[in-house]
Specification:
3-stranded antiparallel sheet, 4% strand, 381 residues, 3 strands, mainly alpha
């Protein structure tokens, strides 16, 4: 136990300020960008959308408070309840099929009075915690084979299938990528990696047989972007045009033509990046990419300094969550990847998405703060 300073002073000394400042900058840019993205609805029949930036501030505040509570509790207490947290997450996914309302052909949201949330978003953190719990309880140091990863694979497969059934291809893909990112740090044998790479195309071919028509159409549109510009290729085409219009310095705040003339659909959820790129140009995009890049690299640093395996895996998982969301969202907007429902962390509008990212940042802060010996704000293990 550290003596000589009150608890609040020690907590302030151990706050990971580079992490906090980076996240705060991304959040501020996200709110400013959301204001511009929804400004086209001022005074229209859809004027409620113009208030989304205000709602985003509320969600950031709620996520910040929830994150502060998570950061205050020693993450080793969270580790004790890892499987319970996972079970609650899976249970909420099952409830989706009973309570969820259908929105544009997908049932992903549960309504409780006026409150709406998306369980699949929170499942990402539940999975990270469960995988970290398993690897913490199985602290072998020798190389692992695919059989050793069978249980983590099952832990990933269960929520992945439930989410894919909603259907939500983007979130189910993120769960798989989080698992693969965590598996990559467990020293898998080279022969097992080659076996996985050999089997992966066969698995992909099997999944393709069960893909829904609109999912296949998106892949076809990605392979031939000019084939259906007024249909399945509309989103991606205008996103690319917006990014190209940005040039070096951008068109200026609230001056992006693709957004102002409403050529960008879902510009406040799936396509906020083209709005930003058109207004702030290549240099602005470099700044944004730099912030996300720093956040991911800093997550790896936190993992390398963690006091135990659970903290290290949690940090890698949270960093992977942010990395894959950013790569896939920007990739689909720039035409490098097929269009899927994927939010850009702290940029896209959405209460569940914003809160999930805030909690992921809180877990990173938690692990970072407790790399110092003897520091714990609530209890000790």
């Amino acid at each position: 136990m550290m003596l000589g300073k009150p608890l609040s002073a020690r907590a302030r000394d151990h706050i990971d300020w580079p992490l906090f400042i980076c996240v705060a900058l991304i959040a501020v840019l996200g709110v400013v960008n959301l204001y511009s993205a929804t400004s086209v609805y001022f005074g229209t029949a859809r004027s409620r959308l113009s208030e989304f930036y205000i709602n985003q501030v509320y969600w950031l505040a709620i996520g910040g408070v929830a994150g502060a509570l998570v950061a205050a509790v020693d993450y080793r207490h969270i580790e004790r309840f890892g499987y319970l947290i996972y079970t609650l997450g899976v249970s909420s996914l099952i409830l989706v099929f009973v309570l969820a309302r259908d929105v544009r052909g997908a049932a992903r949201w549960i309504n409780i009075g006026s409150f709406t949330f998306q369980p699949s978003e929170f499942m990402k953190l539940c999975l990270i915690i469960a995988l970290a719990k398993y690897l913490h309880d199985d602290p072998r140091n020798e190389e692992r084979n695919l059989r050793d990863l069978a249980i983590p694979a099952v832990l990933t497969l269960v929520p992945t299938l439930l989410i894919a059934r909603q259907p939500d291809l983007g979130t189910s893909l993120v769960l798989v990528l989080i698992f693969l990112s965590i598996a990559a740090i467990t020293r898998v044998k080279g022969r097992s990696v080659l076996s996985f790479l050999a089997v992966a195309p066969l698995v992909g071919a099997m999944l393709w047989q069960y893909a829904l028509p609109y999912q296949r159409a998106r892949v076809y549109s990605f392979l031939d972007p000019e084939a259906d510009l007024s249909g399945t290729g509309f989103h991606a085409y205008h996103a690319r045009v917006a990014i190209g219009n940005g040039g070096l310095l951008g068109q200026g705040f609230m001056e992006g033509m693709q957004n102002q003339y409403r050529f960008l659909p879902d510009q406040y959820t799936d396509f906020p990046y083209p709005v930003f790129a058109e207004e702030w140009g290549f240099l602005g995009t470099l700044v944004l990419l730099g912030l996300y890049g720093f956040l991911v690299v800093w997550s790896i640093r936190i993992a390398s300094l963690a006091r135990d395996r659970f903290g290290a895996v949690v940090a890698v998982g949270c960093g992977a969550l942010i990395f894959w969301h950013t790569i896939i969202n920007m990739g689909m907007a720039s035409g490098m990847l097929p269009v899927v429902g994927m939010t850009l962390p702290l940029f896209s509008y959405g209460g569940s998405s914003v809160t999930t990212v805030c909690l992921a940042i809180a877990l990173l802060m938690n692990v970072s703060m407790r790399r110092y010996a003897g520091f714990s704000t609530i209890g000790r293990v």
